[in-house]
Write a structure and sequence with these properties.
This is histidine kinase. Its EC number is 2.7.13.3. By secondary structure, this protein is an alpha+beta fold. The protein has five domains: 155 residues, PAS domain (Beta-Lactamase); 155 residues, Beta-Lactamase; 183 residues, Beta-Lactamase (2-Layer Sandwich), CATH 3.30.450.20; 158 residues, Histidine kinase-like ATPase, C-terminal domain (Heat Shock Protein 90, 2-Layer Sandwich); 116 residues, Rossmann fold (3-Layer(aba) Sandwich), CATH 3.40.50. The strands form seven sheets. A six-stranded antiparallel β-sheet has the order 8-7-6-11-10-9. Strands 2-1-5-4-3 form a five-stranded antiparallel β-sheet. A five-stranded antiparallel β-sheet has the order 13-12-16-15-14, with helices on both faces. Strand 4 and strand 5 form a beta hairpin. The longest helix is centred in the middle third of the chain and has 40 residues. The relative contact order is 0.04.
Length: 868
């Protein structure tokens, strides 16, 4: 202690240390006075305290003057060093009523006080907080046995106690959630899940009621379907509008943020709080369930008195809401699936269609009652592949039908066959039409499933018609042959569709399109089978579906930057101006179209048809974002992107022509913008959009060397900016346009050599060219085409596929032009690869007609090339 008084031999310590505080007492008016005047017992005891790492505080004398070591100082926080040497009633005023009885007990009785994890309420950081300590208070005695003070050795256990409480709370929460899961996970009734979840959660949180509500697609209509209420509570079952509870409440929940009200009368305006109090609600918390960007459900707990919500309560409410929603949606999905299955069963029953399911590995065959009936069996009969199916076939059809099954199982080919049966028990002969397909998913056993229908009456009618008229017999044979060809083409399309296990998005769209095509062809078939030739509308529907499928393929190629482009110098201002009428007609009367064309626009080099398609795609997207109408603005301008702008926007430095398409629609949030260019991503309802519009725009712009950016704000609108690189140099002279009525037919003197490895495509293409008046020579492959050209006169035009086995179309042209350098060539393909397209652009002087093409496109292309 005396060493503390000699300042010459010590560096001056920081004022926060106890030594410095003691030195300061020498010049202060503290009751304890300078340390040199301290009693020997106090001085010795304080010297011992200073050396101890344990938290120690000494309360000296009847006024309990406080002395403590450095280890104890953090325990009282901001009170240090002011509390040092002062009466404890000053430094510990907020807990003096709690602390003084303990100190008095020790000082007056000499009995020590011990406690573990004792709670205190102390203000050490500017606010009152609950803390816990292990304490050991003991008397400090003079030589004569009198008690001079109370020595307190403490150890703070606040964090450990908090951790233990949190652990207990987590265990209780997990136990509750486990109980809730056991109560609901096996339930097949959505209402029962709601009732159980609301009851258990409401009772767990001690509320007066708990409810679960669905939010309709309009984002405003709320239907409370599940509810638990305690004694005397009001029921809230019914339908409400979110907007009636005020803009703040509605905005909070639609944004996916929890709504917590500790006291509605203090936190809401009078007219809004009245809506809650009428329902007996004084405090409430609602957890919104936002799925796919839309508010879909709410779960709420209510109190009839003010209640301050804790983070643990809100966390539990949120987790129960999420789990309940998942269970409820699962059950609802199962209910919908059962309903759809029942509708399908009723439809099959009404259509008198039988179904079958065969597992070859297990030799397990299942027939429904209708299928058994068509084979002359009762509903309860046992069936097998050999004993029922093969045995029930007409002897003349047995080998053919068995071969068709084996081919479908081994190759995956579609199973589509007609055969006769002899009823196994009733002996009746029937004509049946069977269709099916092989199904194998991952490692599951191979299955062969399909349908069968009785066509006996149709066959009988066909036979009667054949017997009546020989001419009709010939026509029927032709129709059957054409039907067989159509079935072959359809099966080929279906096999190609299955290759690669197309993603969900493209499968959805292609299936819709194929449904239109198949329905059109089936209806055409049924009409023609009945002798009715009024099938034009069905053929048109099938053609429209096929064209949509071709457009979808082009969009996929555009996104992957694989579509062949025919770029040429374009004046963007003239192109946009020319599209005004098209945009007005497309968007409808509720959308006002404005164009702002910049002066002196630079030239760009792009495929004009693809640029028009990109602008139209953006306009249609903008229209869908403005269901109540609005304004679409198409603006063009010259833009210089410097280094600074390039770093901020991610656009390469250079000169660009900007095309900005702006709408006043609903806008997009950041999450939607980040995925806007992803193929098949769409915010539109199922069946309302492919999700390929923006991805096509992105692919075309990037393939053209440009950039595209989206700027959007919710409820304010969206701007899509296309940056196309400037074309340096003067604009080439525009070639004269052909008159629209230019002749598209050929002459017999003009020979077209058609080279196509696909016999059906080759036959159809050749037939079209012959119909157009050309002399057509067909070659099944490049080698056959070379032999024809080497042996005979040079054709006027070589019309060749690009991708063929053995030799590509480009390689064939290279060989032919060694003999005939001036030969005119037209390529066709469904996918160009790298044979005639490089860097996304057709090779110079190359003509391409992409598959699929129609008669008009082929006629125009051939005529244009021959007339060059």
């Amino acid at each position: 202690m005396r060493a503390m008084e000699g300042g010459d031999s010590m560096s001056r310590p920081t004022p926060s240390h106890a030594v410095d505080v003691v030195s300061a007492l020498d010049i202060s008016d503290a009751p304890l006075g300078p340390s040199r005047n301290w009693p020997p017992l106090l001085a010795r005891l304080f010297d011992v305290m200073l050396c101890s790492p344990v938290q120690i505080v000494l309360f000296w004398g009847p006024d309990y003057l406080a002395l403590y070591n450095d280890a104890y100082a953090p325990t009282i926080g901001s009170k240090h060093p002011h509390a040092f040497g002062r009466p404890a009633s000053e430094g510990w005023s907020e807990l003096w009523d709690d602390l003084r009885p303990l100190l008095d007990q020790v000082r007056l009785t000499g009995e020590p006080v011990y406690a573990r994890d004792r709670p205190f309420f102390i203000e050490r950081h500017g606010y009152l907080e609950e803390v816990n300590f292990d304490i050991a208070y003991s008397a400090v005695r003079e030589v004569d046995g009198s008690i001079a003070g109370v020595l307190c050795i403490v150890s703070e256990t606040t964090e450990r106690m908090r951790a233990e409480r949190q652990l207990r709370a987590n265990e209780a929460r997990l136990s509750f959630l486990d109980s809730l899961s056991r109560e609901t996970v096996l339930s097949a009734d959505a209402n029962a899940i709601m009732d159980t979840s609301t009851r258990m959660l409401g009772q767990r949180l001690g509320g007066v009621s708990c409810s679960y509500a669905d939010v309709e697609p309009d984002g405003d209509t709320i239907t409370v379907r599940g509810e638990w209420t305690g004694p005397g509570a009001h029921s809230v079952i019914g339908q409400y509008r979110l907007s009636q509870f005020g803009e703040t409440v509605a905005r909070t929940l639609r944004a996916g943020q929890p709504l917590t009200l500790n006291h509605v009368r203090e936190e809401l305006p009078r007219e809004l709080s009245a809506l809650f109090t009428e329902l007996g609600i004084v405090a409430t918390a609602s957890i919104p369930l936002v799925k796919d960007g839309r508010l879909t459900a709410l779960m709420s707990v209510n109190y009839a008195a003010p209640h301050r919500w804790t983070p643990d309560e809100l966390a539990l409410l949120s987790e129960v809401a999420e789990r309940s929603w998942a269970h409820i949606e699962r059950v609802r999905a199962e209910e919908r699936a059962r309903a759809e299955a029942e509708r399908a069963r009723l439809a099959i029953t009404a259509a008198a269609i039988g179904t079958w399911d065969y597992q070859p590995a297990l030799d397990l065959l299942k027939w429904d009652a209708r299928c058994k009936e068509l084979f002359g069996l009762p509903p309860d009969a046992e069936v097998s592949y050999a004993g029922s199916f093969l045995a029930g076939l007409h002897p003349e059809d047995r080998e053919r039908a068995a071969a068709a099954v084996e081919n479908a199982l081994s190759t995956g080919a579609d199973y589509n066959i007609e055969f006769r049966t002899i009823g196994l028990r009733d002996g009746k002969q029937r004509w049946l039409a069977a269709t099916g397909s092989r199904l194998q998913i991952d490692d599951h056993p191979l299955r062969f499933m399909g349908t069968v229908i009785d066509i006996t009456q149709r066959k009988r009618t066909e036979a009667e018609l054949q017997a009546l008229n020989a001419t009709l017999e010939r026509r029927v044979m032709e129709e059957v042959e054409e039907r067989s060809k159509a079935e072959d083409r359809l099966r080929q399309a279906q096999k190609m569709e299955a290759v690669g296990q197309l993603t969900g998005g493209i499968a959805h769209d292609f299936n819709n399109m194929l449904a239109v095509i198949i329905s059109g062809l089936n209806l055409t078939q049924r009409k023609l089978d009945k002798g009715d030739t009024d099938v034009g509308r069905f053929v048109e529907a099938a053609l429209e579906g096929a064209q949509r499928a071709a457009t979808l393929t082009q969009r996929l190629l555009a996104f992957s930057r694989q579509q062949p482009l025919s770029p040429k110098p374009v004046e963007v201002g003239r192109l946009v101006t020319g599209m005004s009428d098209l945009l007005i007609r497309t968007l409808g009367e509720t959308i006002r179209v404005e164009t702002v064309i910049g002066a002196g626009l630079w030239q760009v080099r792009v495929d004009p048809a693809q640029l028009e398609s990109a602008i139209l795609n953006l306009a249609v997207n903008a229209r869908d974002a403005m269901p109540e109408g609005g304004t679409l603005t198409v603006e063009t301008a010259n833009v210089d992107v410097d280094d600074l702008h390039a770093r901020d926007s991610g656009i390469a430095v250079g000169h660009y022509v900007l095309i900005a398409v702006t709408d006043t629609g609903t806008g997009m949030d950041e999450a939607t913008i980040s995925r806007a260019f992803d193929p098949f991503f769409t915010t539109k309802p199922v069946g309302k959009g492919t999700g390929l519009g923006l991805s096509q725009v992105y692919g075309f712009v990037r393939q053209s060397g440009g950039h595209v950016r989206i700027y959007s704000e919710l409820d304010l609108g969206t701007t899509v900016k296309i940056y196309l690189p400037r074309l340096q140099g003067p604009m080439p002279a525009e070639p004269p346009r052909e008159p629209r009525d230019v002749a598209r037919r050929g002459t017999a003197a003009e020979t077209v050599l058609v080279v196509e490895d696909d016999a059906r495509v080759r036959a159809l293409s050749s037939e079209v060219l012959r119909d157009l008046g050309y002399t057509v020579v067909e070659a099944a492959g490049p080698l056959e085409a070379l032999r024809f050209i080497e042996a005979g006169p040079c054709p006027a035009l070589l019309f060749t596929d690009v991708v063929m086995p053995g030799m590509s179309g480009r390689q064939l042209v290279d060989e032919v032009r060694r003999l005939h350098p001036a030969l005119k060539v037209l390529y066709t393909t469904g996918y160009t690869r790298d044979a005639i397209v490089h860097n996304g652009t057709l090779d110079a002087g190359t003509h391409l007609l992409p598959k699929p093409f129609n008669v008009e496109a082929l006629a125009a292309k051939v005529r244009a090339i021959l007339d060059e």
